[in-house]
Records
---
Amino acid sequence: MTVKEVAAFLRAHDSYLILTHRRPDGDTLGCAAALCAMLRQMGKTAALLPNAEVTSLYADYVAPYWAAEDYRYETVVSVDLAALGLFPDNAERFKNRVDLAIDHHPSYEGFGRESCVHPECAACGEILYELAVELGQLTPAVALPLYVAVSTDTGCFVYSNVTANTHRVAAALMETYRKQIDQHPEELSKLVRQFNKQSVFTLDGPEYARSKGQTSDLLRPWYQKKSLSLRWEGPLDERIFSPDLAQDIIDGFKTLIPFYHYFNKLVALTPRQERGGGEDA
């Protein structure tokens, strides 16, 4: 199926259950969360089949979308799931029940009744991005998990599978998400001030040649990135064999944790109607 055909399929069906693969990474989880957000924004009922192997690194992205035990589904969709052997234990019963499979692996085993497979894509997130655009659902709540998906399966855009389209998709997702950051610059400004006081990590990533909008001098280096990462680079010396290395890593992650929580919090700040959930009762 083409992306346009998948969009028509999703408009025509409802009550979705979305499957991820064993040992889930950012691509399968990011795609699942983004697809679920899209469907809910469209007024559809959608949820993710719980995956017991989700780690704390990705838990916040999928937590709002887990299906309840009594969830009643009609349409089963898998994302980034290439092989029958990768179905989680609680998904075994769906091996012959997948209505639509969306994947980018050349090794996809063809188990879906309908399939949208694009091996030319470096990440399944690229396919979901095109789908979000086709459906008119590329909101901040969709863009963040898709950025996680694309950046995960490309090793933050350094793997050999990265293409020009990968960068185009990442840039579009950053632009969508930047609009959300623009509305609440104070907290990011505070984090950047603290970040600028340390000397372990540096802000890294390709920059746009033209200005991406009006912002403070403090935030401009962050806004001008096509994609960004916080990077540490040091010499390969005797310290890597020292017991102190573990504490260095812990201290480094303590520096990054506020940024992790900040970007997760931005999703929570997105109005519920944008996430398809309506108003709180």
---
Amino acid sequence: MRKLKSALLGIVGLATVAATAHGEERIVSLGGSITETVAELGLADAIVGVDQSSLRPEAVARRVPRVGSPRAVPLEAILTVSPTVVVSYDDLQPPEVIPGLRSLGIRVVTVPRRPEVEAARQKVTTIADGLGVPERGRALLASIDRDLAWPEGKLRPARKVRVLFIQTMGSGPLMISGTGTTAAALLDAAGVDNAVTAFEGYRPLNAEAMLAIDPEAIVILKRALERIGGPAGLVATPGLGDTAAVREGRIVISDDAAFLGLGPGFGAAVRALREAVYGR
């Protein structure tokens, strides 16, 4: 096994050197929002490997092999696609993967995994600089910042609207966001109040708690809404149907990637939420 691994490393090393000599960038992108960012920077065609959380762009997801799960990617699996650069979160597991890549002369660009708008903005800059396209990064960041900015001439509301965020994880129950999540960060960026501040992270939706929270508006991910049968499912869900948000139809359906991964579309998601709640 050790001889096989050594042979693999040698072959991959030669392939990487050959690609570098011809000026070809071969990118392994690990993380859904990271892959979206790399593609948004105009480098989709250079992606040669992704992890299982990288579902967009669909053309990339269909074309390239998956080299591991979102948090555990074997070094050997990455090397099979002969990358010249790997882009990942800085908590990539196993812990020996990043130093192992660097010891082989493969560039590694890392970004922190923090549920913060500023961290998402910095992610764009770090990836763009690391991949040699800083000007594209500045252009993308400028677009995001335009979406995040409160519209010029529009008065801020005297009182913020209380908004509940709902998602689902696989086949599990509906989950609501407390504090310290990417969803909470985007609610704040949109100028609304998170309706749930009693706990951190996500917890299953509870009918009794919903009556006490009684949000004025709800943001629900598209896949969660589809799972419960569409808008009619909201009315039928115990606790939700009696909230002011559902009774008065103040429901915002959002994209999974923007609210969960803080990908390059998060600015547009913030703008869409702000406009849905406060108008244009």
---
Amino acid sequence: MQIHSFTRFLAFPFIVAAGYVMYQNAIDYYFSEAHSWILLPLIVILVGLYILSPQIDFWWLQKFPIRIDSRIKSWLQERSSFYQGLSETERVKFEKRLSLFMRAKEFSLMSPEKMEMPEDMKAIIATNAVQMSFHQDNFLLSGYDRIVAYPHPFPTPYYKHLHSVETEEVDGVILLCIDYVVHGMTVVDEYNIALHAFAEAYLEKSKREDEVHVSDTDAALLPEISGIPMDKILKTIGFDHVNLVLVAIHHYLKYPNQFLTKLPVLCGQIKALLADRKN
């Protein structure tokens, strides 16, 4: 049996005890006189467990991660070239991190039906974050706690026009068009906006963008590596300009062999950027 919430498991005996004390207080005057004080520490414990539940549950899941669904694992084996290239030990690490990421973030699906986001959709999005941060200890992109998926391009208070991807550092939210995510992951010459978004979130939090230098020569080779013209990338994301460092990181992650062949120096810079700093 896998315990999804260790806090609920811990809280159960205290809830039973509190219920018993309240019941006895209601039917037995002498019990109430002698033992009603017991209710206070029980309530304090339950409130403490409620407040600390995210930290407790995450600690538990790090020790005993929830196994990913077999359908998600099959999808990784069939669709994720990054996962396919991992050793068995690395695949276990990837699956554990994917499970933790899916439970550490609040996923929302903006649809008229007000549906909860399905687990496989969460996994499709989270796979990109886990790939990008695979060589980092802090793989959860702390500070970005909410991920919102739209079925189509969307406007926001920050950007009134229709676009497909946005990261909001102040609000700690990443916004994506899910159709564009799936298309970018499954079609070779399409831009993956999820890799773009998580790379942008990482740069915003790490403040390490100056470690990567994309020259004019490098920029000219990016379309050759991916088969994606720059104007197509702009049309995909819905903006009239783009940070070339984000495009370079995207291509490094999606087209690793071509990137290494064409841009070995830039490849080394991005490899170092996406790893923990060495002291």
